[in-house]
Amino acid sequence: DGVRCRCHGRFMTTSPLTAAGHWIGGETVAGSAGTLPVVNPATGDLVAETAAGTAADVDRAVAAARAAFPSWSATTPAHRAAVLRRVGAGLAARTEEIASTITAEMGAPVGLSRTAQVAFPAAVIDSFVGLADTFPWTEEIGNSLLVREPIGVVAAITPWNFPLQQIVSKLAPALLAGNTMVFKPSEVAPLTARILAEVTVEAGLPAGVFNVVYGTGAVVGEAISAHPDIDMISFTGSTRAGRRIAAVAAETVKRVALELGGKGANIILDDADLPQAVSKGVAMAFTNGGQVCGAWPRMLVPAARQDEVVALAVEAAGQYTVGDPTDEATRIGPMAHEAHREKVAGYIERGVADGARLVFGGPGRPAGLEKGAYVQPTIFADVDPRSAIAQEEIFGPVLTIIPYADEDEAVAIANGTAYGLTGGVFGEPEHALAVARRLRAGQVDVNGGQWNALAPFGGYKQSGNGREFGRFGLAEFLEIKSIQR
Ligand code: NAD
């Protein structure tokens, strides 16, 4: 009996949404605390329900993962890579279902859901599959043999902004390394976890290697952080939650990998191609409604060029149609949930109150969108780099244009927040590269450099620790033993 949801006047079949139970040891298990609602932020309608977990459900999932560990960790990397390859193919085969599910639960435009949530995870899986043969699983240093071994039971806790991409970026390296997993998806966007579990079964992953427990951070997340039989937590989410997880996990000395918030700066140098720099900068501020950890919500411009930049930015922003995320023409949907809309709207009001110059959008709803979690994409100019909108992570479509006097000041402003996740530099290539090296951030793009699935990604400062992707990301999920001979 399929749950059907009424979205924008037409019925959508949502088969995976019927499955409310956790996925533990190859079985569907009811939540000990009943169910949690999943709400469509574009309409306010109930999309589906998932299990609501408790510490007892976490215990059960950890026991299943522990039981599956000896045999899974004894398989070869080549075997595990073959299973992962089938997982990637299985996800690709369900592209439309995954895209419409994610769009219904968190409001990303459906075109973006297809690329960022399916094509991107599939590319991540391929990149890890490709590493199985070349990664130094063992190596020698003098008289020592170094052996890389799985850590054991790894828990993954993820946010709602790219729900499938976030878990796949953890699942692929964790399982390739030979670990087993307990996964707690975001309660805001939990529905593709079930599709992923089904795909792993079809790919031949043994029961218990991958388990899903639904629930809130306050209950299930806390139980995971405190669990004595979980060896590692790989977390992506806010700096606030990451801090708490690290503190609780310290009691059992777990390994904790944290991918946290960001406040990326895009430095536009005097010798930059301005139209290119501004158009890419606006995209990096507005894509997924700005709900991207690696976004560039700050655009740093030579003071003498600010007027030119504002004109280009306003023109580019006008192309970001806001509206129904199931419409192929939409480029910005609603914020992922109503409380988040209120937070973003509050920052837009704060920017006005703090005296920044509003040049696009502003407080209030976009025209014609009287319900749903919508805000207006907004651009402020002449922003004080010490003001709240330039310092705090808004996680919405709000671009702050900050003028600078000289390059040293630009670098100081870029590095002048608690975060250090991403950044961009536009200018003559050698010049831009020299400035990129001065940024205290884990990933910097020069002149809009292309995404590379093998390049490490992660934060300096309060943007986290550890790295995801490629061989550095794989190494996060491995212990290293040295045997002296
Ligand atoms: P969030 O921190 O509120 O929640 C993330 C996950 O943590 C959810 O599954 C939540 O249930 C869980 N959680 C919350 N409190 C917890 C606790 N006390 N113990 C254990 N788990 C807990 O973040 P969100 O609102 O879902 O996502 C937005 C945030 O995620 C932003 O700050 C963004 O920058 C960050 N993010 C970072 C990256 C990255 O790679 N660095 C990527 C995407 C998002």
Bound molecules: nicotinamide-adenine-dinucleotide
Nearest-integer average pLDDT: 95
For the secondary structure, the number of strands is 22
Shape: globular
Contiguous runs where pLDDT drops below 50 for at least 5 residues: 1-17
Structural class: alpha/beta
Number of helices: 15
Q: Within the largest sheet, what's the order of strands?
A: 16-17-18-15-14-19-20
Describe this structure in words.
- This protein is of the alpha/beta class.
- The protein is 38% helix and 21% strand.
- It has helices at residues 55-73, 77-93, 95-106, 110-131, 163-176, 192-202, 217-226, 239-249, 274-286, 306-317, 338-353, 388-391, 407-414, 429-436, 470-475, and strands at residues 4-7, 10-13, 22-24, 27-29, 35-39, 46-51, 138-141, 144-150, 153-157, 180-184, 210-212, 232-236, 255-259, 265-268, 298-302, 357-360, 378-381, 398-404, 422-426, 443-446, 464-465, 478-484.
- The protein has a seven-stranded mixed beta sheet with strand order 16-17-18-15-14-19-20. Strands 11-10-9-12-13-21 form a six-stranded mixed beta sheet, with helices on both faces. It has a three-stranded antiparallel beta sheet with strand order 7-8-22, with no helix packed on it.
- Strand 14, helix 9 and strand 15 (298-302) form a beta-alpha-beta unit.
- Helix 2 (77-93) crosses helix 6 (192-202) and helix 7 packs parallel to helix 8 (239-249).
- The longest helix is centred in the first third of the chain and has 22 residues, at 110-131.
- The chain is globular.
- It starts with a strand and ends with a strand.
- Mean pLDDT is 95; it is low at 1-17.
- Bound molecules: nicotinamide-adenine-dinucleotide.
